[in-house]
Structures are given as C-alpha cells and as structure tokens.
C-alpha cells in the first residue's frame, strides 16, 4: 500500500483516517469499526463493500 495514498484516504462514512492491515489486505476505520477491502492493490472505499468489525474483535 502506497504511504502517500494511505495519508490522503479517509473513511467515506465518518471522514476519519484509516490504518492499513497488511496481513488482511484491509483499511480499518476504528471509529466506525469498518474494514475496507483492498483488491488488486486498489482500496474499495464503498460502505456497502466494507466488513463490520465485531465489538469483541481487536484491530
């Protein structure tokens, strides 16, 4: 994941910054508890494509 791209991407729901979870190929929004997939090195920044992170799961 390109660092410059990561710096400018924000959660489309709450506009918070995202963290990159390399092993799962996801961008994580901690306030929304959403994980946006990265497919073919392209972040899919659609709310309907995001995975909800269960409350008992750590980031």
TrEMBL record:
Q: Which SUPFAM superfamilies match?
A: Trm112p-like
Domain of life where this protein originates = Bacteria
Q: Which Gene3D superfamilies does this chain map to?
A: 2.20.25.10
Q: Which GO terms describe its cellular component?
A: cytosol
Q: Which InterPro entries match?
A: Trm112-like (IPR005651)
Q: What single Pfam family name could you report for this chain, choosing any that match? A: Trm112p
Entry's family note: Belongs to the UPF0434 family.
Matching PANTHER family, A to Z?
PROTEIN PREY, MITOCHONDRIAL, ZGC:162634
Q: What is this protein called?
A: UPF0434 protein NSCAC_1527
Question: In the record, what lineage is assigned to the organism producing the protein?
Answer: Bacteria, Pseudomonadati, Pseudomonadota, Gammaproteobacteria, Chromatiales
């Amino acid at each position: 994941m390109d660092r410059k791209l990561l710096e400018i991407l924000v959660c489309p729901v709450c506009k918070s910054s995202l963290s990159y979870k390399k092993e799962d190929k996801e961008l994580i929004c901690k306030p929304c508890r959403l994980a946006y997939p990265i497919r073919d090195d392209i972040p899919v920044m659609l709310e309907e494509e995001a995975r909800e992170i269960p409350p008992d799961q750590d980031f």
